[in-house]
Design brief:
Blueprint (H helix, E strand, L loop, with lengths): L1 H4 L2 H15 L3 H25 L5 H9 L2 H36 L13 E3 L6 E3 L6 H16 L1 H26 L23 H12 L19 H30 L10 H7 L8 H32 L18 H17 L2 H29 L12 H18 L2 H25 L1 H5 L2
Antiparallel strand pairs: 1-2
Length: 448
């Protein structure tokens, strides 16, 4: 869970959210987003202990809210995992290029930038002159190979990477707190500029919706429920403990970051490195921070690309996607076809598009899935009270309803363009469902 959560959010999005939306009150934005995740996390933990199968929110929705809603959620989980992997790959590429530059080497711009970027219209794309973001493509290919080999190798690699990045983050907090200038925290919530989401409380809430990307990943723990030794015990611990650790680290990093540098200067893809560069006495840490960021994003991609093929597997098992997606490798015991398809698509997306387009799509799909999970737990308490629950959500009426409301509120705060793209993605998804999934559904075939 920590491997999935800590990555692009803490190393990239903290700066842009502070500079453009919340100012030093980014701390509050992280707490709002963390609250939504904690409430949804409790619901995920109950589901994971009750239905320990691959598929995450898709499988939970299938068991509680029916096939059509489950397809809708599964399709949005594809949006989350596939595009999140591609988004993180682009951020990874940026930090690698920066580190290489620091070492005195230069990689050609044509091979390290996206050839397409966002135009003025909702769906307008314009060429940048670059050929492809090659580092992003190569890292996706490497992660795909690791996921193809198997869960044990992936888990070991993840444990090493998590140790590296958490150490680097703790070093940043520990050394950075000594050079904080309290004047940088004034005003704590900058005045609203007249534009919704640009400072003021509306900015704090919109920043929460945007940096929600930073929390994406704890739900990926539940996609590997069938591969856990004791899912009824391990899933709740994995989900809630990873969420708690990461929330504490996020709040600490955002406090130190906005204290070291004025929020208006943080609109950069590498805000943590910028803060260290502003303090020469800490410049020795900058290279290590970049290394930690690279390690952090690597483990995020690993968990996202571990989760996506298992979503495909679950949907194929129910007949909603072709049988090829549920093929399991005879030696490695992994859903290898889904892994290869995920890797190919993620590499293509990461090589062609910038973070500005990719990142917007990820948060809204995840928030929608979280809202459904919160509602699903409450529904199942009344429709299927007989199912054994090794972990129960405390005060379900409060936790489930508040979780759904907080997640919905963050969705509403997101930019209008995000909703337009979500609508297009949803239409495409339902076309596939009615043209293929509806006719091949195992549920429909069984007459249940």
């Amino acid at each position: 869970g920590i491997g999935a959560i800590i990555g692009t959010g803490i190393f990239v999005l903290t700066g842009t959210a502070a500079a453009n939306h919340a100012g030093p009150a980014l701390i509050v934005s992280f707490l709002i987003a963390g609250l939504g995740c904690a409430l949804a996390g409790l619901c995920y933990a109950e589901f994971a202990s009750m239905i320990p199968v691959s598929g995450s929110a898709y499988s939970y929705s299938y068991a509680t809210l029916g096939e059509l809603v489950a397809w809708f959620i599964g399709w949005n989980l594809i949006l989350e995992y596939l595009f999140a992997a591609a988004t993180v790959a682009v951020g990874w590429s940026g930090y690698v290029v920066s580190l290489v530059e620091q070492l005195g080497m230069h990689l050609p711009d044509a091979l390290t930038n996206a050839p397409l970027t966002k135009g003025e219209g909702h769906f307008e794309l314009v060429r940048t002159g670059a050929l492809i973001n090659l580092p992003a493509v190569l890292v996706v290919a490497a992660i795909t190979a690791l996921c193809y080999v198997g869960i044990h190798q992936s888990a070991r690699f993840n444990a090493i990477v998590v140790a590296i990045k958490v150490t680097v983050i703790v070093l940043f907090i520990g050394f950075g707190m000594w050079v904080i200038d309290g004047a940088n925290w004034q005003p704590f919530i900058p005045e609203n500029t007249g534009t919704f989401g640009k400072f003021g409380w509306s900015g704090v809430v919109q920043a929460a919706g945007i940096i929600f990307f930073a929390y994406i990943g704890f739900d990926a723990v539940s996609t590997a429920a069938q591969e856990a030794k004791n899912p009824q015990r391990d899933m709740p611990i994995g989900i809630l403990a990873s969420l708690a650790v990461c929330t504490v680290l996020y709040v600490a990093v955002s406090a130190v970051l906005t204290g070291m540098v004025h929020y208006s200067e943080l609109n950069t893809p590498a805000p943590v490195a910028l803060a260290l560069d502003r303090h020469p006495e800490l410049s020795w840490l900058a290279g290590w921070i970049k290394l930690g960021a690279i390690a952090g994003m690597t483990s995020v991609m690993l968990v996202m690309m571990l989760g996506q093929p298992r979503i495909f597997y679950a949907m194929s098992r129910d007949g909603l996607l072709p049988p090829v997606f549920r093929r399991v490798h005879p030696t490695h015991k992994t859903p290898y076809v889904g892994t290869l398809i995920t890797g190919t698509l993620a590499a293509l997306i990461a090589g062609l598009f910038p973070v500005t387009i990719l990142g917007e799509l990820v948060s809204i799909g995840t928030l929608l899935a979280f809202t459904t999970v919160c509602i699903g737990v409450l529904v199942l308490r009344y429709t299927r009270p007989d199912i054994p629950r090794h972990f129960k959500v405390p005060a379900p009426w409060f936790v489930c309803i508040t979780g759904a409301l907080v997640c919905t509120g963050m969705m509403v705060s997101l930019p209008q363009d995000t909703w337009v793209r979500l609508a297009g993605w949803t239409v495409l998804g339902f076309l596939i469902y009615f043209l293929y999934g509806f006719r091949h559904s195992e549920l429909r075939k069984s007459g249940r």
